[in-house]
Each structure stands twice: as C-alpha cells, then as structure tokens.
Amino acid sequence: MSANFEYYKVFYYVAKYRSFTQAAGILMSSQPSISRTMKILEDELGCTLFTRTQKGVVLTAEGQQLYTHISRACEEIFAGEKLLESTMERRSGVVRIGASETALHGFLLKKLESFHNVYPGIKLKVQNSSTPGAIEDLKEERVDFAVVTTPTGASRPLVETHLCPFQNILIGGHQFESLKGKVLRLEDLKNYPLICLAKGTKTYAFYEELFLSHKVSLTPDIEVATADLVLPMVTHNLGIGLIPEGLARQALENGEVFAIRLAETIPPRSICMVENSEKPLSITAALLKNAILSPSEFP
C-alpha cells in the first residue's frame, strides 16, 4: 500500500458524508487540509476519486470501488479500537460510591473486596455518609450510585434496587444485665437511657414512625451520626441501643452485649442500590454495579 492509513481514513469520512466540510469537523481538521490530503491520495493512486457539486462531492466510479473496500476496513479498525478501549477501561478508571454505614458493613465491603481482587486497577472512592447524604451526593452527581438503607426517600429519576434485608434489634451492655430474659414494650424504653441515630437520618424517621404507630414518643438520650457509633456507646454502658443486627453480631457472639426482647415487632428493612435512571454509568461503574447485583460472591 503506497498511501498511508491516515489518507484512507480521511477518504472514508469524506466519502461517507459526501462532504469535505463534515469530514474536517469530525477529524478536527480544516477543509483546505482535507482537500490537500485527498489531492495527494488521488495523485498517489493515479485516478480521480471525487467530483465536486454544489451540494458537496460525489464519488467517481473509481472512488466508489475504493470506498467499498476502505469502508469495511475502517469500520473493522474502529470497532477494534473501541473494543480495546473498553478492555482498557475495565482495567482502570474510578468508581465513586455513596454508602451508609449499615450498607457498607452489612453488605458492600465483601462485594468491594471481590471486585478489587478481579479489577485491582480500578480505583474505588467510597463516600461514607447517612442515607440522605448519599442520596444528595447522587443527585449532585458527586457519586455514580449509592448503596444505602431504606427508607431512602428517593423519587424519579432515582430508582431503588433491593439488595438484601436486615433487621434492627435492641441491645444492652453489662450494666443492664437485669433486662436479660425480660420482654420490654416500647413505652418501657422511656425508663432507660436510649441510644439511636440522630434526628434528620432516615433511620431516626423509621424509629419515630414505629414508636408513633404504638402511640409512644421517641425520646433518645443519646443520638449518634452513624450506626457504627451505637455499639461502642452500649459497650461502655451509656445506655441501651437500637442497632442493625449485623453490626452487633460479633459483640453478641463474644458476650459483650446481649439482645433485649421487645413485645412489638420491629419491621425489617433493606439495603438497596440507588441510581439515577437518566444518567448512564461509565464502563467501570457498570462493572461494579453488576458485581453488586450478582447473587454470588462475584459474577
């Protein structure tokens, strides 16, 4: 091949769009430069490839014959480049995730570990916050998607995908061992220092609705910003605490705390993924999303 590939690439776009001007725009070049390149190609091939008209250019018989082969070759090359680009993006890039404490420890960390083992070149930026904070970050496009707990308060174009259920329980430390084996009612909790997430969180709203449904006011003595702070408060005997069971499991097994039975049933909640249905994910973010949604440890 006497002419180099760049000449044929320019020819491909001029022939495809029947326009030197459009080809120049796509190739980020100038119309005179495109014209000069085509003149060089015609000289090297020894034939005329285009005929100029008022509406643009028309391929000559020789030009059409060449375009039949060049178009297939260029499209194969472009497809190969796109596939390679996709493969390279799978090995690098950044994914930004908003996560609440319960979602992070109760579900997401194991998924991130498996994903990182397969794609160590992809950087993960995890912004740990409350569910409302993660949802706000998603709305402002500071994260690609959020993994949080219900209720999320999300509305269109944000959509929720259920990941797994979890249960909240009431726990106590050694100073409250007199409560072991007893069944408390929600109204009884006003007699004990109660620890739960702070007002303004979706978890507080969840508890408040539960208490009000039984005609009891929620009046915690200690409010904390994130769910992982409840356990150390309880182990240091500052009160009894409402906490996701998964966050307390090891402490329960070790005997550091114990579960306190309630007469009323605490409704189960869910860890879910929230994403913006109007914003397509990058290749790397879509990879992580698929890994998270996979029922196995890793797809």
How would you describe the overall organization of this protein?
With 299 residues, the chain is of the alpha/beta class. The protein is built from 10 helices and 13 strands. It has helices at residues 5-17, 20-26, 31-45, 61-91, 101-118, 131-139, 202-213, 230-235, 245-254, 283-293; strands at residues 50-53, 56-59, 94-99, 123-128, 145-149, 158-166, 168-172, 183-184, 194-197, 222-224, 240-244, 258-262, 269-276. The strands form 3 sheets. It has a 6-stranded mixed β-sheet. Helix 5 links the parallel strand 3 (94-99) and strand 4 (123-128). Helix 1 crosses helix 3 and helix 2 (20-26) packs across helix 3 (31-45). It is rod-shaped and about 100 Å long.
Features:
22% strand, single chain, D-Maltodextrin-Binding Protein, domain 2, six-stranded mixed β-sheet, 299 residues, alpha/beta, Arc Repressor Mutant, subunit A, 44% helix
